[in-house]
Amino acid sequence: MRLWKLLGLAGLAGVAAGGVVLARDERQRRAYTPEDVRARLHERAAAAPDPEEPAPATAAELTAGRKHRLAGVLRRR
């Protein structure tokens, strides 16, 4: 029975320690002012590479294949 008590107390101590860690992290996160957050987001956006836009599909690519819906519509006309 003593082993179960020790395991229960160890589990309770682990939950309490986890709560302390979460509270500390939340306190640090809330320490930023809105201007600080905005400035950091602008820095990250400026550092991110611009995404490449894909080239538009040609008519041949759109109508390739007999089962393609657009190909069937275009063949009917």
Distance between the termini: 85 Å
The low-pLDDT segments are none
Radius of gyration: 30 Å
- Oligomer designation: single chain
Strand portion? under 5%
The percent of residues in helical segments reads over 70%
Q: How many distinct beta strands? A: 0
Query: Any idea what the shape is?
Result: elongated
Instruction: Quickly count the helices.
Output: 4
Instruction: Report the mean per-residue pLDDT as an integer.
Output: 83
Largest sheet: none
Sheet/helix structural class: mainly alpha
Q: What is the H/E order?
A: HHHH
Topology:
Layout: H1 2-29, H2 34-47, H3 59-62, H4 69-76
Descriptive report:
This protein is elongated. It contains four helices and no strands. It has 77 residues and is an all-alpha fold. Helices cover 70% and strands 0% of the residues.
Brief account:
The chain has 4 helices and no strands.
Name the features.
single chain; 77 residues; mainly alpha; 4 helices; 70% helix
